[in-house]
Amino acid sequence: MNKDITIYDIAKNLGVSPTTVSRALNDHPAVNPKTKKRIFDAADQMGYQSNVFASNLRSKRTNNIGIIVPRLNSSFQSSVLAGMEKVANEAGYNLIISQSLESYEKEKANARSMFNSRVDGLLVSLAGDTDKTKHFQPFMDKGTPILFFDRVASQSGHTGVVIDNSQAGYNATQHLIQQGCKNIIHVLGNLKINVYGERLKGYKYALMDHDIPFTQENILHSDLNEEAGEDIAHKILSMDPLPDGLFVSNDACAASCIRSLKQAGIKIPEDIAVVGFNNDMISRLIEPNLTTTHYPGYEMGEVAMKNLINHLTDNTEGVLHNTNTITLRSELIIRASSLKKKLEP
Amino acid sequence: MNKDITIYDIAKNLGVSPTTVSRALNDHPAVNPKTKKRIFDAADQMGYQSNVFASNLRSKRTNNIGIIVPRLNSSFQSSVLAGMEKVANEAGYNLIISQSLESYEKEKANARSMFNSRVDGLLVSLAGDTDKTKHFQPFMDKGTPILFFDRVASQSGHTGVVIDNSQAGYNATQHLIQQGCKNIIHVLGNLKINVYGERLKGYKYALMDHDIPFTQENILHSDLNEEAGEDIAHKILSMDPLPDGLFVSNDACAASCIRSLKQAGIKIPEDIAVVGFNNDMISRLIEPNLTTTHYPGYEMGEVAMKNLINHLTDNTEGVLHNTNTITLRSELIIRASSLKKKLEP
Q1: Which residue ranges does the record assign to the HTH lacI-type domain (chains A, B) (predicted)?
Q2: What distance in Å separates residue B40's CA from the closest CA in chain A?
């Protein structure tokens, strides 16, 4: 392995003093622009690395932002990450990314590793079985800002970027009721995760507002993936009477469920009207096209990262500390899978 | 912001000497296990950060691995990243991730930022308009290992993890020919990207082997996303005669194309047999189900990361330097979208 290139090597190479090289690389006004350019070009060519570590030790900043997501291979999370990366990159920050694989223990280990890497800030979407946030206490004690997104901590004192999941659940359910559905199944994920709890609340409120009794049997818990969609379809097919509406908390699972129901001879939406969640590409490509809630992942990533970086840059510590929730717009997109009645012209 | 917790604070708190604390935290055998545990617990509780920077300065290792992908919000790339993260995390490495957004200039800036962050190694899938690898020279000069995956550099001297794209293109095309297709359209992405060039080669070889003349008009260039699929469908519908086979280099684009063709009254596969690429979830959910090439993204991520970490751990510099290409298995998965003839029992 080669030795690191130092300012002394550059100085020797160009026949200027080390002081001039150091000043030029720090953009000091006393060095004339032509010399600066020569020195920059030489530094580039020779493979000089600015001594980020030493400068980090002085500034106590690493320009690294940590991100912990439940899963990297999720259509929603990868949109969020793309939005975060764009904002961070433009502001000169690197992203250190890890996944908890829905495990509290792994999330704890990831948080510890991020803490030891001295990230300047942390963005977290919680694992499925995380029900406490003690593992983030060291960041808080140290004044390192944390922002939660999508799956946020229910404890007060944290800032979260979310959509109004309760309202979204309400809108989806009310739409099915307006299409004439009276026996609506709701498929959701782990109730420890705020988003599913909130959507369930919205489902219940909508039933209540339309005088439809709530029954626990109509709530199906699921991993919300492709395989789970098949299981859900089998459960539904064994129900007597068959439900007439289905609100699934994720498009992939809804699409897979529709496929299995159709294979069993069920007509969508005539027999069962179906609504998904997320507005993934698959919602526009399956048949019939899937009614769903547009969930702005990319924008959520942008907003979360911008808020964190503003906090770091302006040092306006009060802003994040006093902000409890940032809520983004979401929207029910009505398509053929739920339209029992024709839309009025 | 609170002051950093030092070993002196821990020592004072527990009434032991700073030397004992330092030894305990470094797992020195001279400290008894009970005391070690007490010190570890106190370090945890008090929010002690091991001084990674200082230890990095000594070891010249950061335990950070840099990854540059064209886009984070891609189904394939997010599977790759999930595989990489799993392996890296288990081996105690952090991932620093950035996206080039298909731009050479942005890839260059990302590489420079990774270099200044002193990553221990780099994994790269090249941007669409990258046609040189000079921006990675500083890593090579410094002995920092680089591995390319999926979209690899054509210059020799680099190691790449790939599938046999030429063979995969051959198999897809030959399958269409065996189904009776004689006029096959191939839709591909930017030809600067090795994977598309290789698949085109396979397409041409298959035609040649079956005495079907190649015509440039049957090659359609595309962004290979959902919108592009609609454009491709319109182009195909304006062709006279209509083609009878379609080999698209990506499932999302193929699925969107099938939707538009069906809306125009074309029967799939009777009128046009369609083959995609990647084996994304969408290939199993659209109708008819899409014939495609299984492209093992997660496994590619695992293999690339394992090779890089083995190189870092064993210091067997020769292994990577002498390996040109690591080729993973891929496989044509035949489904209804291409079956003009019934499969023989």
Answers
A1: 5-59
A2: 13
